[in-house]
């Protein structure tokens, strides 16, 4: 029986992809369109990874340049300022998953494990008035597989009673590493990868 649900955030609870695309384009606007679009492809392919990883990838792999930790943090903070301004709008919430969360937060132990910056994530959840639905809200710079491990350990959850709902291959991998069931959502490509896939939450049955 499922008792504990770990939620990804972007693409599962919040429809934020286009806003985050804009954020990366904005902080790297002095670079060429071709270079930035390579980052956007990488960002979309690796939705569960943090902005810190993506910023470092842009410099080291696309530009072929070194970047210090301080410079990464400056760019990450600029990105966060853009996100905090735009993503507090409730229109970005995904109605399908939100209704399930609202109706079932007393029936399951809900936690967020996200690639988004943890401080920003908690800020957004508070502003969107959804923070009370979750026992804990966890984000980057800690890697998602480690976030999952920590939630399982700190709360003493049994793995066979715990699932992760996500929309990216990184979410799938985090579940695999921690030996918990993965449910794909909002990404048709995950239908082939995951044994369980949520078409819509009205039809979701958890045993």
TrEMBL record:
It holds the Pfam family HAD_2. Pathway: Organic acid metabolism; glycolate biosynthesis; glycolate from 2-phosphoglycolate: step 1/1. Its EC number is 3.1.3.18. Signal peptide: none annotated. It catalyses: 2-phosphoglycolate + H2O = glycolate + phosphate. PANTHER family: PHOSPHOGLYCOLATE PHOSPHATASE. Belongs to the HAD-like hydrolase superfamily. CbbY/CbbZ/Gph/YieH family. This is phosphoglycolate phosphatase. It comes from Maribacter dokdonensis.
